[in-house]
Design goal:
The protein has 277 residues and is an alpha/beta fold. It folds into 2 domains: 3-88; 89-275, Rossmann fold, CATH 3.40.50. The protein has 10 helices and 10 strands. The chain has helices at residues 3-12, 19-37, 41-53, 59-69, 73-95, 111-122, 139-149, 162-165, 190-199, 269-275; strands at residues 103-106, 128-132, 154-157, 171-174, 178-180, 183-187, 204-207, 249-252, 259-262, 265-267. Helix 1 (3-12) runs antiparallel to helix 2, helix 1 (3-12) packs parallel to helix 3 and helix 2 runs parallel beside helix 4 (59-69).
Length: 277
């Protein structure tokens, strides 16, 4: 396996999770790749393969658009630095929304959403978290372990238990892979979480750096291998007459979003929609 194939596989297999994390990983790979191969045709091919590995996430696309206009190693370094610094700014901005003793519900694994939660804990707020398991890859388990490592009280629940626990939380905080005019694309199940939050009058916050603002005309909801849904090791035998679908993301309409926490401040949906025009 070539280094490019390995990088693509790491992204595609969800070894690297989160839109920002995918972008940083891909940019770090391209920095070494372009030192050897330059910014010509080989770069174009590598950039295309990396972007196609997880097509819904927009951060890498936006970074590559900038890099294609300014094809220099300094551009890569600048983009990585800005992405990493944006998380620190996001954490401080989001922390302002969290009060002492708040119980927060989150979904999947988002480095930016976790940064907000961790910042509140570091500031001495006695918070607790309910994390969804996030089927079918159980990405929420990674979230729960990360929070437990920080000594933050966390409870792991099944995705289908969201309605049972929503009445007990003070707010919902989730990440995002893409912010579009038609809504927020995030891990499958986010839309149902937003609907449940609205029904219980709970604020629903999306955490996203502004590189996640998505103006692409072509937008694809990634569908992942069906073997992630039906694990033959647990259920021996083949399914007959049953079709399997495994979309990785859904889109939550902006009307269900209380605000979007960015590095540039806490933005109301109407302002975000204006910026996406």
């Amino acid at each position: 396996m070539s280094s490019l194939e390995k990088a693509v596989n790491d992204i595609k297999s969800v070894k690297i999770q989160g839109a920002k994390e995918i972008a940083v990983y891909a940019l770090e790979f391209l920095r070494d790749f372009c030192k050897k191969n330059g910014f010509g045709l080989k770069f174009e091919v590598a950039a295309w393969k990396l972007e196609e590995a997880r097509p819904t996430a927009v951060v890498l696309h936006n970074c590559l658009e900038i890099l294609k206009k300014r094809r220099r190693l300094k551009t890569i370094d600048k983009l990585i630095k800005e992405l990493n610094e944006s998380t620190k700014k996001i954490a401080k901005n989001g922390n302002n929304l969290i009060k002492n003793k708040y119980k927060i519900m989150t979904h999947c694994h988002s480095g930016e959403a976790l940064a907000v939660i961790k910042q509140a804990w570091k500031d001495g707020k006695k918070i607790s978290v309910i994390a969804t398991e996030t089927d079918p890859l159980e990405q929420g388990v990674k979230t729960a372990k990360e929070l437990a490592k920080e000594k933050i009280p966390v409870t792991l629940i099944t995705d289908s238990a969201v309605g049972y626990f929503m009445k007990d939380v003070d707010m919902v905080v989730v990440g995002s892979d893409s912010i579009r005019k038609n809504g927020v694309a995030n891990k499958i199940g986010t839309f149902l979480l937003a609907l449940c939050a609205r029904n219980n009058n709970k604020p629903f916050y999306v955490v996203a750096n502004t590189m996640k603002f998505d103006k692409r005309k072509k937008f694809v909801i990634e569908e992942r291998p069906t073997k992630e849904v039906y694990k033959e090791l647990l259920h021996p035998g083949k399914l007959k007459g049953i079709k399997l679908r495994n979309p990785a993301f859904d889109v939550t309409p902006m009307k269900f979003v209380t605000a979007i926490i960015t590095e540039k401040g806490i933005l109301r949906p109407e302002k975000v929609l204006r910026l996406l025009k």
